[in-house]
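Late entry, written up from scratch paper. The run itself happened at the end of the previous shift, but nothing got recorded in the book at the time, so transcribing now.
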Amino acid sequence: MLGRLAKKSLLKWSLLSGVVVVLIACSQNMGRFVDIDGYMLGTTFHVSARTNSQSVDIYKRIMEVDNQMKSSMSVFDEASLLSRVNSNLTDSIDEHIYNNLRLAEHVYQVSGGAYDVTVKPLVDAYGFINGTPHKNVNVDSIMVFVGFDKLSYDETMLTKADERMELDFNSIAKGYTVDLVAAELERFGVKDYVVEIGGEVRCRGINSKRGAWRVGVETPYDGNMNVGGSIQQVLSLTDCAMATSGNYRRYFIDENGNKVAHIVDPRTGKSAVTDVLSATVVAPTCAEADAYATMFVALGAERAVEVAQTLVDEGVMVYLITSGEGDKYKIFYSKELAPMMSHTEGYAAI
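Output as recorded:
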């Protein structure tokens, strides 16, 4: 694993892949908290930290992390190391790709193959990158070179069983980057902070009101584009990370009128059919939370509940919003998460 690797605005929100998370910040400062906002990885970031360091110095370090990630794992930059690996221009990898491979392999095994970072050729074939649905996808021919078990790697080199294989760490990379930024803050001696990139969060210590960091999860419903419009749950977090994944925003309707979700099941090559509307995961690292959240959506509610119960010893807790009858929904949550939740009435503990 990855080694377990001040403003008076009340709300700070950002768009996650499929769900909205609202950081409920504090309006009254106690101590020297600095807030830093900007853009990285093609999305927004927000840092709030108690520190004696200059915010400009912290910002520069954050931008260094951004540059590292883009040059290492971006699938949109043809010059990145991962793009060159995908194009068979090199078989060398760096520590970031290696760390992501290790976590990806673990989640692949836990999920029984439902989570797989080699799914990129299928995602491309379905047109998820440019948002244009592709017709007549030849799934069988693509499945020949999809599957994590067709990879072998060590700390410096990756070998693909088929040169057409491509990797995409978008389901880990944002969370992993949150962890890297958090590590940089700790190198500055920061003990109280929250880091948020595109809705994915890692926090430590206390906020400016000397309480836990409070993070809200929005109620999911099809086509919801009202960012922060309906907060369904508030979690009080400290010394942990959180990420959410869902399929109710990023989808298109195919020629048969079927909703095609943004998650593809690599076991079948087909768009994932799932009754999990959103999965929120609290874990020791944001990379883990990121990957597991994607996994739980792909698994579907019944299997997700079963798998969640096996991950408690890893410090992984889950909050699942699943579809019910009509427009109703059901909620399942890890019982270990209950002390962090604003309310639990009517929900099912697992």
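The first strand starts at residue 11 and ends at 15.
(Scratch paper discarded after transcription.)
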